[in-house]
Write a structure and sequence with these properties.
256 residues, alpha/beta, Carbamate kinase, 8 helices, 11 strands
């Protein structure tokens, strides 16, 4: 993991150096709901944009993968009789809609942003090309990576792991509605214990469900740490990028 030199914070005072130089933030579509039942809440997008902006001010390069569950979920549609592949493609299109909403919030906050998609739609976004994505990051732009992997039967968690490895991210930040990984569902078991750290192998063996097994295996094979944290707690994205204690760190067990 690479420490970047501290940069000046707003007002001229030096900022604390970030632990990670390049991160990939995985957001679920539900993270954009706010208090709504479906769709995108502009205030929630602005809340996320503000946090990402505070990370960018410290020189951290930020890529984002967003899900589409707030608009459409392929598995749910398949259960009602729709072809699974068709449902998944519709879900990919939903992630593009979410990506454009996030881009609008980012640019309203003065953050230069690019949306790149795994499915060609040149009128609304750039095609995903790894070298181009890396170049955008090097130029200080936030890159939103939409449409999953471009293939059905793969979740956006797997897309996040894949893109993180491809662009050379130093950590995968998995934003959730809980403050880490628990021994059981804390909503159902008051005695559930939150873990500060976990090895990949235990997450897979116990099927803890924080990410799908394909995503965890891909991170394990490429020694990419995963940090699971609560997106609703203000400042948590910045804390995660700085390496402050937040959430649960999933790693190989040797270099937390």
């Amino acid at each position: 993991m690479t420490d970047r030199s501290a940069q000046a914070a707003p007002g001229g005072s030096p900022a604390v150096a970030a632990r990670y130089g390049r991160i990939l933030l995985k957001l679920s579509g539900e993270a954009l709901l706010g208090a709504r039942q479906y769709g995108v809440d502009p205030a929630t997008c602005a809340f996320i944009a503000d946090q990402v902006g505070s990370v960018r001010e410290r020189g951290v390069e930020v890529a984002i993968v967003v899900g589409g569950g707030n608009i459409f979920r392929g598995l749910a549609a398949a259960a009602k009789g729709m072809d699974r592949a068709t449902g998944d493609y519709m879900g990919m299109l939903a992630t593009v809609m979410n990506g454009l909403a996030l881009q609008d919030a980012m640019e309203s906050a003065g953050i230069e942003t690019r949306v790149m998609t795994a499915i060609g739609m040149n009128e609304v976004a750039e095609p995903y090309i790894r070298r181009r994505a890396v170049r955008h990051l090097e130029k200080g732009r936030v890159v939103i990576l939409a449409a999953g992997t471009g293939n059905p039967y793969f979740t956006t968690d797997t897309a996040a792991a894949l893109r993180a490895v491809e662009i050379g991210a130093e950590v995968l930040l998995k934003a959730t509605k809980v403050d880490g990984v628990y021994s059981a569902d804390p909503a159902l078991d008051p005695g559930a214990i939150r873990h500060d750290e976990l090895p990949y192998t235990e997450v897979l063996a116990r099927r803890l469900g924080v990410l799908d097994s394909t995503a965890v295996s891909l991170c394990m094979d490429n020694d990419l740490p995963i940090l699971v944290f609560d997106i609703n707690q203000e400042g948590n994205i910045r804390r995660a990028a700085l390496g402050e204690p937040v959430g649960t760190l999933i790693h190989g067990g040797n270099d937390a």
